[in-house]
Design goal:
Elements lengths: L2 H20 L4 H24 L6 H6 L5 H18 L20 H4 L2
Helix pairs in contact: 1-2
Length: 111
């Protein structure tokens, strides 16, 4: 998270704590604050998880990122692995215009 973004998040947290202090027991406000803080944490974690540039070159090559014909799928597989390492329990990869929900013409749609 950039310093500017961190400053904004910290300021919002301070304002939220102040508002909660002058309106104690307001459950909706408390819930909203927790929700905002979780969303900020998820955005930061997702950004870091999607950045495969920090992987070792050897690892990127193992996933085929060094070859045009395997780069897209390899990147998606590497990102999927990174999400699983961070606790995500279900990951599914899709390429290009591949449909995720096909109820007819399954053989052509998922070839």
């Amino acid at each position: 998270m950039s310093l500017a973004m961190r400053a904004v998040v910290d300021l919002l947290a301070e304002l939220n704590r102040h508002t909660l202090a002058i309106r104690p027991g307001e459950v909706d406000l408390e819930t909203r604050i927790v929700s905002y803080e979780l969303a900020a944490a998820m955005q930061t974690a997702a950004k870091e998880t999607l950045d495969v540039s920090r992987e070792l070159e050897r690892v990127r090559n193992l996933y085929g990122l060094n070859r045009a014909e395997t780069h897209e799928y390899g990147t998606r597989c590497l990102i999927a692995r990174r999400f699983v390492e961070r606790g995500l329990q279900f990951v599914q990869n899709f390429l290009g215009n591949q449909p995720w929900n096909t109820h007819n013409n399954i053989q052509d749609g998922h070839a």
